[in-house]
Structures
1.
Amino acid sequence: MHFSWRSLRWARRSFLHFAGSAAHSALRASCRCLISSHFCGSASHFSCSFCCQDCAAAVPGTGGWSGVAARAGRLREARPSASAAVRVFRFIGFSPWGRHPVQRPPAAGVDSAADPGSQCCTPAECTSLRTMSSVHTAYLVVGIIAAGMGVIVLMSDPRSGASRALAMAMLLLGLRLGLSLFEHAGDTAWQLQAAAMARLLEAANILVGIEWARRIAVLSAARLQRTIQVLFRVSQLLGLIYGAMTLGYIAIAPEAALQDAPGLMRLSGLEWAVFTPVLGSSILLAGIAIVLLLLVSADPAECGRLRALVISAPFLLGGLVLAERYVPVSIAVGLLVFLGGSVRYYIVQAQRGEFMRQFLSPQVARVVNLQGMSQVMRRERRQISVVVCDLRGFTRFAAERVSDEVMDLLQRFYQLAGEVASRHGGTVKDHAGDGLLVLVGAPLPVADHAQAAVRLALELMREAQPLLRREGELGLGIGVATGHLTVGAIQGAGRLEYVAVGNAVNLAARLCQRAEAGEVLCDRRTHEALRELPEFPAQAREPEQFKGFDDPTPVYALTAA
């Protein structure tokens, strides 16, 4: 293939024109449409890349895209390969959104063949095209923000049904705004399809948004539950009817459906009369339900988002009735207002997590953080070890001391026991007065849980003795038992409780009761797990008949080597 210096210079100039036009558009915040303002061959005629299609290839000008395309047209006659470049420039001359070039009829007395620029758009039409391009870009930006907020909500709280519904509403809003780029593209059939899809997304967005509030009511509202649910369901039904009516309107009157009314509102008088009663009733019922939800025992964290929704609703719903150029600004303001409530929601949730961390063992908190509440709530039967300890002489100590001193002792003892249990993988389940129950092997599995339970008991006994001696005649007895238990979380009386049910719990409690101060007793299963460990010598005792057990139970006293 032959390349001449002239063709290289032409390619270089073409590239420079293209790069310069793109840079100019970016600096003027209109690169989103690739608008490049210039003068055609006629020095008095203003044009732009939207409209210079045919004239650009014929006018022997030197400025902007018209000069480049004109040179390409002249070169096409000499080199047939240049026709591809002409087609490229003609393609660039079209609007990126798919609009055809805007042309006007030639003025009186002007030969269109002699002056092809007379068929280009007027300056006002070029300005209108640039304005429309900016509006489309605003739709795209706001749509990306809305969809991004939905993704953030979903990733931040994926296990909450209410948050999943909210994320879906945000994603639908982003898709609806993104679809605006294609509503005016192509022929009438394409525009009707895009308009129908847009109305579907609007109706789905309304339904899912109401579903988010309804799920909050299911989890939160104790009073007026039935009334609030009925209001939300009727509101969703009206929203569904609204969506069906908009689709029917497009099918019956397509030309009117595609035409926006002039002024601030895009709806005509007929559309106001037909759609406003249904949509307004749906919004009114949902608003009443939300107000009732705020007045009853709603979740304080969700209340922040609900209040933000009430404030932002006029701006978000304005996208259904405002003229096209005002919609991105209205929705952007609504999203900013709602974002403030969402931030407040996550602040409250973080504060709750920090507060609950004080009442959950590190093991349970770790399961909740890594696997969610569903893992903790799941019931299963597994073999674990149970450690039960109890203070000796505590009743007399509590009678002789003031309550503040008693509470101070218990706090220090519980803190010490929690630290020791954490080091050996134990979970402190219950604080019952002067007693303590620790699970080793649940909710997180622990390898060699029986050995870990014995190490825990002996270390707790060793470290608690100095504390108890300083307070007077206090001692500590510990019982350890191993067996199959059913573990999991149950919910009742408005709180969540992690429980372990089985004979091993009762046996550990009986062994603790029988242990003297400074003594650690274990059952036969625990002792069998320690046979190969000489550092835990065990002394067999006479079998004991414990309450609740039919046969005498072997008992072993443990000491540290």
2.
Amino acid sequence: MNTASPQTRIDEIAPDIFRISTAIPPGAIANGFTFNQYLIRDDQPLLFHSGPRLLFDAVRGAVERVLPASSLRYISFSHFEADECGALNHWLEVAPQAEPACGQIAAMVSIGDYAIRAPRALANGETLNLGRRIELLPMDKHCDNISLGLYREKTSAGPCYLIHTYSASAGAQDRVAFLTRALRVMAGM
């Protein structure tokens, strides 16, 4: 990846929840491209998506504008690809108390082998206590090329955050089925 002159910014999108965005210039990738990570600042901070290895320094710089990178407690992600997990081991090196937090299948087939530290394998509905209560609700794969995880803050009537990904090869019907299933899960919360 040619990351010539990436621009990284960090924005607080909800109280203590930050989006880190690194824009890759159009000269490096046609029409440009943006990588995003999410940082939850709490007693036990969580970084959602590690970013690719080559952007680690830029993302770390953004994290350190909010909190010391060494204070991260969990690194989590929606699925295992370089843009979500490429820098995982770099984060584990700078944050000695951090654990990868993922679903049981990801822990078994990918993260348990890839990460330099054992993952925290989460069951459906298992909670991570970050200070406030954050709940990961991994969902079974229900359409090809689509994965989904829901995070919500449990101690208030606050919003539910939907984190999802799907590939361009997923058809329109798959996307509708995916969103319908996600809305049904959220309605039952």
